[in-house]
Amino acid sequence: MIELICVDVDGTLVGSSGDVAPEVWPAVERAREAGARLVICSGRPAFGLTRELAERLDPQGWHVFQNGASIVHLPTGRSRSGQVPDDAVQRLIARARETGRILELYTDTGYAVESTGERARRHAGLLGVPFAPRPFGELRGAIVRAQWIVPLAEEGAVLVEPHEGLALTPSTSPVMPDTAFISLTAPGLDKAGAVRAVAGEYGIPLERVMMVGDGTNDLEAMRVVGFPVAMGNAAAEVRAVARHHVGHVDRGGLVEALEYAATL
To answer: What is the mean pLDDT of the chain?
Structure first.
C-alpha cells in the first residue's frame, strides 16, 4: 500500500485560479483514513498560504518546502534544513543590485526582498503574505534558499550565468504564467533528498511513497519513489518518468492521484 503521498503545490495542489479545488479536500481525508500520510513537497516557503496548506494535509507531520532546502516538522518547528553559504549570498545580493533583478532570500520562517517591482508584489500575493520590501540585512536566521524572479523569456539567460557553489532549480506557477522562479540552494539539496529524509523520519520505505507533481523541480523526487505520478499539465520530462498519469490540475488531476493511491 501507499503509506506516504508527497504533493507538489503549484500545478498540482493549486491550479490556475490560485486556489485548491474544493473536491480535493474530501479526497485528502479519504487518503488519510486509508492510512496514508500526506506531505507538502513544494518550492514555496514554510509560511503564509503554503503553511496553511501543509497544516490541512497533516498538521502533525513533516513537510518539504523550498525545493528541499527547508524540511520542517510543523508541531515542533524542528528543522532539517540546509543553508546557503554566506559568500554566495553576498554575491547574489551584489548581482541583484547591479542588474535590478528581483532577488528573494529565505529562512525557514520568513523572507526578504528589496525590490518594489510588480512581480515581487504579485509573488507576495501568491505566497499569501503582505508585500513588505525591506533590506536584506534585516532578515534574521540562516538563509536556506535564494530565488530569482524574472520574466519567463529571461530564464535561459539567468540559468547560464555563473552561480559558483549553488544549485539552480527553475520552476513556474500557473498563477503567474509569465514568470520564472529560479531557486538557488546549496548543492545536494533537492526534493529527492528531502523526500528520503521525511520517509526516514516515518520509517516508510521509498517503494511505498507516491510523489505527485508537474514541474521539472519534481523530477528527482519522482525518480526515487516507488510511485511517481504526473499531472496532465506536467512537463514532458515529468511525464516521461511517471509510472501513472492523471488529469490536468484544473480538472481534478490530484483527486485522481489520491484515488489511485487507494487502489495500490
So the answer is: 95
